[in-house]
Structures are given as structure tokens and as C-alpha cells.
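Example record

The entry below shows one chain as it appears in the dataset: sequence first, then C-alpha cells.
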Amino acid sequence: MCLGLLMMLLAGSVVYVGKSYFEYKLRED
């Protein structure tokens, strides 16, 4: 199992969700 690829995918998901949440909060304000 390629752990590096899994970690990259997880990090990408976290960044994507965080960015979406940040934009949502900006739009809400």
C-alpha cells in the first residue's frame, strides 16, 4: 500500500474542505 499517495489524497481533501468552508464563511459575513 502506498502510504505517501494516501497521505497526499487525505491532505488534498482537507485543504479542499477547508478552502470551501473558508469561502462559505467569507460569503456569509
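Notes for this example: The helical segments are 3-28. The two ends are 43 Å apart (CA to CA).
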